[in-house]
Amino acid sequence: MTTITFIHPDNRSESVEAEDGASVMLAALTHGIDGIVAECGGNAVCATCHVYVDDAWTGKLDPVSDDEDALLDGTAAERRPNSRLSCQIKVQPALAGLVVRIPDRQS
Amino acid sequence: MNPTGLSPAAGVAPVIPHLAIDPFSYEFFDDPYPAHQEMREAGPVIHLDAWNVYGVARYAEVYAVLNDPQTFCSSRGVGLSDFAKEKPWRPPSLILEADPPAHTRTRAVLSKVLSPAVMKRLRDGFMVAAEAKIDELVGRGSFDAIPDLAEAYPLSVFPDALGLKPEGREHLIPYASLVFNAFGPPNELRQQAIERSAPHQAYVTEQCQRDNLTPGGFGSCIHAFSDSGEITPAEAPLLVRSLLSAGLDTTVYGIGAAVYCLARFPDQWARLRADPSLARNAFEEAVRFESPVQTFFRTTTRDVELGGVTIPEGEKVLMFLGSANRDPRRWEQPDSYDITRKVSGHVGFGSGIHMCVGQLVARLEGEAVLTALARKVGSVTMSGEPKRRYNNTLRGLESLPVTFTPA
User: Is this complex scored with an ipTM above 0.95?
Assistant: First the structure.
């Protein structure tokens, strides 16, 4: 289990214990985190599980794939340098304490 | 409680309940919900003797089957017909009726053609078309919401987005209806659909050719991927065919379902009126609640344990998506239509690697129609008896007389 913290647009934060090997998106859905919609269920086609990864963590993630890069161009909220799709971030002990911010809209 | 007071004999395998329910009968289509409940309560895996298939009707098992494509394959057909034993009625789909790794390559192409970035470009046009359609219908007041809205709106946007020429579009809905009937067993619905299929098949085969598709549309974009080598020139027309099969009738049923829900549940209509930004979720909830695509089959590639019982290799397993979407083990108050529900995870578009590749187009169309409704219509009331349309796979209406009053 690895702790992940979600910060909402109103700065409210929620921390969850996420199962290693699952995606950050699935951890959010499992714990009922508002603002992660994940319409496509993790198929990497919808871009509705968009998050901004806290700068302290961006370097620890796997690089953005070409498919994710294309999808990030279609997010509802502004794309920023630290934009990622939470379905593409795999929970692992090295990410303990990961902080992600949820954008104000997903569709 | 065990009435005999005795423990079940040790070592005896749990028995798969055999049920006489025919999920492809008119009686079932008229009211599937009591049968769904009976199947869910009978056990995690059931056997349907009417067609000699296994079935799963609870959310957990439907989800498990959808998310294990190696064990529950699609390449032997996602209808009752087993392609290992019977010749398919048409050349198999390169995406729907394919397993990894073949599926992975074609799926990637269609995902790019139907991506969020593409939806952003289509969005304004789809919204404007929806507003025009609703303006026209508010002007008429009373009309039939199935042909005049649920069919008319997708027909006004989707064939153009795909890049079809104007002639012959009347074949589109009959072709899709044929495809979805053909997933069913050899009953009257399937036989009749296939007997009448020749002109629709000829039209569709012709439209899938590169020269017949307008530049810039989905179809033309698919063919462009054969230039860069992701797919072969021979594969491109079959992938275009997938959009023609799956992209129109399903959204017709989805929009019909949403209007039917809003007409029946005035409290939810009032919520949507008060906050049109709920339109997208209201459409999604209608897809859960009515499940326009009710069923799909898979075929087992090995002996597999599921829900404590074993299904042998080479067996058809029928997944009841509509039943899973109303399983009380997964959903609170599953039989209520609630447009604010957290509806993520429903299987109305499937789940896993075969989850509907056109889902973003469907949602865009649904959102556009419901947004325009919420802004322009004061009340939606039924002005006559709805009439059901029968299909082996799809659930929806033939006719829904309604009256719109202006906002």
Answer: no
Chain B residues 345-384 within an 8 A CB cutoff of chain A: 345, 351-353, 355, 357, 359-360, 363, 367
Nearest CA among A104, A25, A98 for reference residue A58 = A98
How far apart are the C-alpha atoms of B319 and B38, rounded to whole Å?
15
Which residue in B17, B80, B16 sits closest to B51, CA to CA?
Answer: B80
Does position B6 have pLDDT exceeding 80, yes or no? Answer: no
Is the pLDDT at B10 greater than 60? The verdict is no
Whether residue B372 contacts residue B134, with contact meaning beta carbons closer than 8 Å, is answered with yes
pLDDT band at B11 (very low <50, low <70, confident <90, very high): low
Q: Cβ–Cβ of A40/B117 closer than 8 Å?
A: no
Kindly report whether the global pTM for this prediction surpasses the value 0.90: yes
Torsion angle in degrees (nearest 10) through CA of A52, A56, A57, A60: 140
Tokens 């009380």 appear where?
Answer: B328
CA–CA distance, B390 with B145 (Å, rounded to integer): 17
pLDDT tens profile B267-318? 999 999 999 999 999 999 999 999 999 999 999 999 999 999 999 999 999 9
Residue B103 distance to chain A (closest CA, Å):
13
Contacts of A107 in chain B (CB under 8 A): 280, 363, 367
* A32 interfacial to chain B (CB closer than 8 Å): yes
What is the C-alpha to C-alpha distance for residues B54 and B351, in angstroms, rounded to an integer? 19
pLDDT at B14: 82
User: How many A/B residue pairs have CB atoms within 8 Å?
Assistant: 53
Share of chain B above pLDDT 90, in %: 96
Residue B208, CA distances (Å) to B21, B104, B182, B199 in order: 39, 21, 20, 15
Of B119, B345, B363, the CB nearest to A74: B119
